[in-house]
């Protein structure tokens, strides 16, 4: 019986992770095959390489260490929303990603502006700031992403990430094809905001509306809950 349960859990995990990876790459491939025809080589380098590197570096520096720390603790949801001491302790650490992320984002934007001698009125400069805002939106969802991973809510991750990927592709496709005169840097930055907003709304809506835990557990940094 125990081996059967383990096999069932493994197959379930494999199924959802495979679906998540397939959709997160398959959806952009379908859209990009049409979008790329409307991009110059310079647009592609800026939007597909530079912005991706900028966002990836910010998110990695802001959250990777906290993810590794928080994922070490084993927790399970027993249906008691009043409980959750372990979860609260994990979220206290996980919520530190946000202030650190704001600092990293602010520093990264300053470095890019200084390194490339940008002005706030330039399209590239505005695009950098918009990408920074997108990173902050995504980092706001990071504590709940970590909690979802700890609870093995793989279906939630599949739905949220698929919706986020689809929203990013739709925004990019609509703006590039329907408004070809738009600055491509701004277009891709707005699509990143759509992705970050979808991640933020998806995880926040799930944990706040489904009420798996009380707000005291989900937001353990509030005054009166910070004392151990």
Describe this structure in words.
With 228 residues, the protein is mainly α. It has one domain. It is built from nine helices and no strands. The termini are far apart. The model is unreliable at 223-228 (pLDDT under 50). It is a multi-pass membrane protein. Its main location: endoplasmic reticulum. Keywords: Endoplasmic reticulum, Membrane, Transmembrane, Transmembrane helix. One of its GO terms (cellular component) is endoplasmic reticulum membrane.
Task: Summarize the entry for a quick read.
The protein is an all-alpha fold. Helix content is 77%, strand content 0%. The radius of gyration is 20 Å and the shape is globular.
Name the descriptors.
single chain; 228 residues; mainly alpha; 77% helix; 0% strand; globular; disordered C terminus
